Amino acid sequence: MCSHWFSRSQWQLPNREQYESLQRLFASKAKAKGLHSTLDNDYSGLVENHANLQQDYGLLRKQFDELRQQYENLRRPFSVTSEVPYTDVWTFKPVASYPGKHPCEKPAELMEHIITSSTRPGDVVADFFMGSGATVKAALKLGRTAIGVELEEERFLQTKAEIG
Prior knowledge:
Elements: H1 3-6, H2 16-32, H3 43-74, H4 108-118, E1 124-127, H5 134-141, E2 145-148, H6 153-163
Parallel strand pairs: 1-2
């Protein structure tokens, strides 16, 4: 019967009547063995102690949840799924030639894969060698903030016009 209140999977503070019954039971068992019963605390003290412990637990749980959220926000994202697989060989079709194509233009799908795998929505993605702006365009498409820097002013202005 005692395990109803104190088992690992089910714990409940007994009411006053149940607690007094447990006190009598434990006292009789202790007396039969020539021991002193240790279940002699006043019930109201137990209730107060239990309420304090519940309040402490609530505060600790809140602190833990806040710290966990901070940890998750600081942790480097690495989001791979069946749609964004983690492999050591990537196969993306190269960007087809077109008038005004940048000589080192990266495929949009490649940049989206990299950004999706390693950032969260709202993160800042910076490309300090912007070129065609593929990184900036992919970042904006995926809901990231983008910073692009390009030495060639004409190329920079072209990309700026393309992203509007």
